């Protein structure tokens, strides 16, 4: 299936999905931070598509650090009467003019190596950015805030048992790599605190590994595992896993992540796991699935089995989305189909 066709299908799916009450966004302003990241980019596009097709008159403020990158990524939407940019970082949030009815906070460090090499900046971006946005929500009397957290807030889980939102976390502040999940957990605590003390409705989404396409230009630095897999398949190279690839996790396709955000934004409050429970598998199993499905077993998966500080220790994050499903949400694309839809 061609990528452009998949993108359009995803937009149309989101437009017509029964559990997103789009009419509640009519005339509203939504601030999306991290708008050049995978999730932020697709969320902005979904909001603008729905606004155009349904005549909602939505105003989207897309925050991003890099003006040149942002304008390039959104080049096919410019000029757009419903799209505005907020250039700058969330740690020193620029002034936001006019009303802000909803906020989705997705800005943050995502590269594992940067988490180890720049742990202070990793923590500060998440925590100070969250505080700034919650203060903005107080000022603007915002109707709802969604924080894009991570399944990593559960820390190291060794049993493989199903993880609900009330599961105990096992984080190690002394482990440098845990600066990322510790900062996410603290940002979640800020959301709960602002909700209790100031009455701001907040939702924290503990996202599984999100699978989706994002057009890139030039050197983008560290590649995610899924990008490495596709690079190797495209070039006919064996997939080399630096670690044992034994960690297991759940996944979620990008359009299902976007629909989860919209449901939580308009109908939810508190903590929500976002996962396709049937996708639970190890990193090695994911690679082997990709080799079989997309490369027809013409290449191999080679396991080097190293222990590297930039990667978490072997972990088993078997998330259930039962609480989110109670709001009507459900995943629509399984792991195998997701690989086909995002293949490069």
Terminal residue distance: 11 Å
Which strand order do you get reading across the main beta sheet? Answer: 3-2-1-4-5-7-11
CATH superfamily: NAD(P)-binding Rossmann-like Domain
Major sheet summary line: 7 strands, parallel
CATH topology: Rossmann fold
User: Under the CATH scheme, which architecture would be assigned?
Assistant: 3-Layer(aba) Sandwich
Which of globular, elongated, flat, extended, rod-shaped describes the shape? globular
Helix content: 25-40%
The number of E-state strands comes to 14
Q: How would you characterize this protein structure?
A:
The chain is an alpha/beta fold and 344 residues long. It has a single domain (3-221, 250-278, 316-334), classed as NAD(P)-binding Rossmann-like Domain (Rossmann fold, 3-Layer(aba) Sandwich), CATH 3.40.50.720. Helices cover 39% and strands 19% of the residues. It contains eleven helices and 14 strands. The protein has helices at 3-16, 38-54, 67-73, 112-117, 119-140, 179-198, 225-235, 254-267, 283-294, 322-325, 335-342, and strands spanning 29-33, 59-64, 83-87, 102-105, 144-150, 162-163, 202-207, 209-211, 239-241, 248-253, 270-274, 276-282, 301-303, 316-319. A seven-stranded parallel beta sheet has the order 3-2-1-4-5-7-11, with helices on both faces. Strands 6, 8, 10, 12 and 14 form a five-stranded mixed beta sheet that branches. The longest helix is centred in the middle third of the chain and has 22 residues, at 119-140. The radius of gyration is 19 Å and the shape is globular. The termini are close together.
């Amino acid at each position: 299936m061609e990528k452009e066709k998949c993108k359009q299908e995803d937009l149309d799916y989101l437009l017509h999905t029964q559990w997103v009450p789009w009419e509640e966004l009519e005339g509203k302003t939504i601030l999306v931070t991290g708008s050049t990241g995978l999730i932020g980019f697709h969320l902005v596009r979904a909001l603008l598509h729905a606004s155009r097709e349904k005549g909602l008159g939505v105003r989207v403020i897309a925050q991003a650090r890099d003006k040149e990158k942002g304008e390039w990524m959104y080049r096919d939407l410019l000029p757009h009467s419903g799209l505005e940019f907020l250039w700058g970082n969330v740690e020193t949030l620029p002034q936001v003019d006019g009303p802000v009815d909803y906020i989705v906070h997705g800005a943050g460090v995502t590269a594992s190596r940067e988490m180890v090499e720049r742990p202070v900046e990793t923590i500060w971006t998440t925590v100070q950015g969250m505080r700034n946005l919650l203060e903005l929500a107080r000022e603007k009397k915002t109707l709802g805030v969604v924080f894009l957290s991570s399944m990593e807030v559960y820390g190291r889980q060794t049993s493989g048992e199903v993880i609900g939102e009330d599961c105990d976390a096992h984080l190690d502040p002394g482990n440098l790599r845990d600066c990322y999940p510790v900062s996410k957990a603290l940002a979640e605590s800020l959301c709960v605190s602002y909700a209790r003390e100031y009455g701001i409705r907040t939702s924290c989404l503990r996202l599984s590994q999100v699978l989706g396409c994002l057009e890139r230009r030039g050197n983008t630095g560290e590649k995610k595992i899924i990008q490495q897999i596709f690079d190797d398949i495209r070039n006919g190279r064996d997939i080399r896993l630096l670690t044992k690839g034994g960690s297991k996790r759940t996944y979620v396709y990008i359009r299902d992540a976007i629909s989860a955000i919209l449901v939580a934004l308009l109908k939810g409050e508190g903590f929500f796991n976002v996962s396709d429970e049937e996708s639970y598998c190890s990193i090695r199993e994911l690679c082997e699935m990709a080799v079989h499905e997309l490369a027809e077993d013409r290449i191999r998966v080679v396991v080097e089995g190293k222990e590297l500080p930039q990667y978490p220790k072997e972990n088993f994050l078997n998330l259930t989305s039962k609480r989110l499903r109670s709001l009507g949400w459900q995943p629509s694309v399984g792991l195998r189909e997701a690989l086909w839809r995002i293949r490069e």
